[in-house]
Amino acid sequence: MGTEAEHGAAGQEADAPAAVREWADVAPEAARRLLLAAVEAFAERGYHATTTRDIASRAGMSPAALYIHYRTKEELLYRISGIGHEKALSIIDDAAKGPGSPTERLATAVRTFASWHAEHHTTARVIQYELTALAEEHYVHVSNARRRTDRLLRGIIEDGARCGEFAVDDVAATTLAVLSLCVDVARWFSSEGRRTAEEVGEVYADLVLRMVGAGAR
Question: How confident is the model at residue 27 (pLDDT cuts 50, 70, 90)?
Answer without folding.
Answer: confident
